[in-house]
Amino acid sequence: MSEETTEGKTKYADYYITDAHKDKGNRFIEWLEVRERTGRELSPPHQWTRDRVVRAITRRKKTFVTSIMIAEGEFDTGPMVRTYERDGEFYLRSVANDEECDNLGELTKDAEERNDCLDRPDDDVHSA
């Protein structure tokens, strides 16, 4: 995990999003691969629904960043993930814009190529 703090990034976050699956319309993320920070390590991945991540950010004030694996067990930390609310709908963002869709930058783009390799979420694991 990177420890550097730069604009849009954080030294540490509660959770790291390492993959995402968008819906067929490419507007909303349906589920995400989330790893919890435990000390200086990341937990094994757990799959969370988009709504669960939104609730963790908005209600529980948990912090999330995107993170891309660069080598086995080594991740490059990306920008903070925030929510954007418009007309009562929440969107997940790591890129600042006012589009009515989820956008996690490079992680979302990379995920489009890998989505068929991931399983469906298990919301019973580590409830948010």
Features:
seven-stranded mixed sheet; 2 helices; disordered N terminus; 128 residues; 14% helix; globular
Q: Could you describe the 3D structure shown?
A:
By secondary structure, this protein is mainly β. It has one domain (15-117). 14% of the residues lie in helices and 39% in strands. The chain has two helices and seven strands, in the order E-E-E-E-H-E-E-E-H. Strands 1, 2, 3, 4, 5, 6 and 7 form a seven-stranded mixed β-sheet that branches.
Please summarize the sheet with the most strands: 7 strands, mixed
The succession of helices and strands, N to C, reads EEEEHEEEH
Unreliably modeled segments: 1-7, 114-128
Number of helices: 2
Radius of gyration: 14 Å
- Overall mean pLDDT stands at 80
| Shape, principal axes of CA atoms | globular
Q: Percent helix among the residues?
A: 10-25%
Classify the secondary structure makeup into a structural class.
mainly beta
The number of distinct structural domains comes to: 1
What is the tally of beta strands? 7
Intertermini distance: 22 Å
* Portion in beta strands: 35-45%
Briefly characterize the structure.
With 128 residues, the chain is mainly beta. It has helices at 50-58, 106-114, and strands spanning 15-22, 29-38, 41-42, 46-49, 64-71, 74-86, 89-93.
Write the layout of secondary structure elements.
Blueprint: E1 15-22, E2 29-38, E3 41-42, E4 46-49, H1 50-58, E5 64-71, E6 74-86, E7 89-93, H2 106-114
